[in-house]
């Protein structure tokens, strides 16, 4: 029997968050943080609404998960995020000592892999989960935005 | 006549913030953001109090300054921070398009220079302003912490 709580299951939840961002006119990136198969944070990008470049989905998820856990380290947690984290978010994930990062689409321009951001040595990284869906949502967002302007 | 509002003047204000962090048992890092010689954000590290690895002085300063300005870009602003920013903070400063970063002490282990974080091409960087004072405060903090444990 396959595990119902696999990476695809949780990435679908992150994609739902990305769709919520899309509906608000935000660049559609969503994230969830999971501990022992339980979602403890669900967030999406809010940089426009909050007028704040630090309001990426991952940053909010880190704050929210730490708040839930009552401690600032996330070393038993997994982050699912629809887009490859940027330098800022990867830098925050470094401090959080998160156990695992699973992302969907790659960000070849501004992703932490291209820019060489250092993660915590204990952090495992998995990429490409539901990447096409995440990427298609991003493309749709930018096409609609261009057509509106 | 010398300019009373030089880098040392504003770094002293950032050092006062670092001292406020020290008093709260936080790693003593302070920051101010300035636009046209006016301080629009004063913050200090609150990672312990808030249980949040993202609560560095710079991150709060970016959010606070953007809130004051009513817009998320800080391209006419200067950040003064007592310690060299980390990857996360430098990544956030990249997104903010801040005009200038002035820091005091270097962080040779976890600073953005060592770790190679990319800043916005328009961002100027000045270092070493009141570096000894900032560094002495950090050392005093870690000595006192060690003696308490």
Automatic annotation (TrEMBL), chains A, B:
Catalytic activity: adenosine(34) in tRNA + H2O + H(+) = inosine(34) in tRNA + NH4(+)
Cofactor annotation: Zn(2+)
Region forming the signal peptide: none
Cofactor note: Binds 1 zinc ion per subunit.
EC number, UniProt record: 3.5.4.33
Domain annotation CMP/dCMP-type deaminase: ranges: 5-115
Pfam families given in the database record: dCMP_cyt_deam_1
PROSITE patterns: CYT_DCMP_DEAMINASES_1 (PS00903), CYT_DCMP_DEAMINASES_2 (PS51747)
Keywords: Hydrolase, Metal-binding, tRNA processing, Zinc
InterPro entries associated with the record: APOBEC/CMP_deaminase_Zn-bd, CMP_dCMP_dom, Cytidine_deaminase-like, tRNA_aden_deaminase
Binding, Zn(2+): 56, 86, 89
Oligomeric form and interacting partners: Homodimer.
Protein task: Catalyzes the deamination of adenosine to inosine at the wobble position 34 of tRNA(Arg2).
Protein family membership: Belongs to the cytidine and deoxycytidylate deaminase family. ADAT2 subfamily.
Protein name: tRNA-specific adenosine deaminase
Organism: Winogradskyella damuponensis
Phylogenetic placement of the source organism: Bacteria, Pseudomonadati, Bacteroidota, Flavobacteriia, Flavobacteriales
Gene this chain is encoded by: tadA
